[in-house]
């Protein structure tokens, strides 16, 4: 059976702390750059999608389009029957 030495435990704790603080420093340095890159790429993707949608949506010059609204029935007969009720005091 192996036992952990105090020196080994302190080494592990020191390594964990160094990695934690090292990542913290690197995140502060490169985080804004990474965030700027991601937002730039997302903006380009949205702009490209918007331009594609805009090009397909615009009718050609002189072309007439008619958009009809769907008919709505005033009363739906499939709802069920209406039951009259009276309030009792």
Features:
89 residues, mainly alpha
The rounded Rg comes to: 34 Å
**Regions with little confidence, pLDDT below 50 for 5+ residues:** none
- Largest sheet, if any? none
Oligomer: single chain
Helix content: 55-70%
Distance between the first and last residues' Cα = 83 Å
State which percent range the strand residues make up: under 5%
Overall 3D form: flat
On the 0-100 scale, what is the average pLDDT? 84
Overall number of strands: 0
Q: Would you tell me the structural class of the helices and strands? A: mainly alpha
Explain this structure.
The model has no long low-confidence stretch (mean pLDDT 84). The N and C termini lie far apart (83 Å). The protein is flat, with a radius of gyration of 34 Å. The chain has 89 residues and is an all-alpha fold. It contains one helix and no strands.
Overview in brief:
58% of the residues lie in helices and 0% in strands. It is mainly alpha-helical and 89 residues long.
Write the layout of secondary structure elements.
Layout: H1 6-57
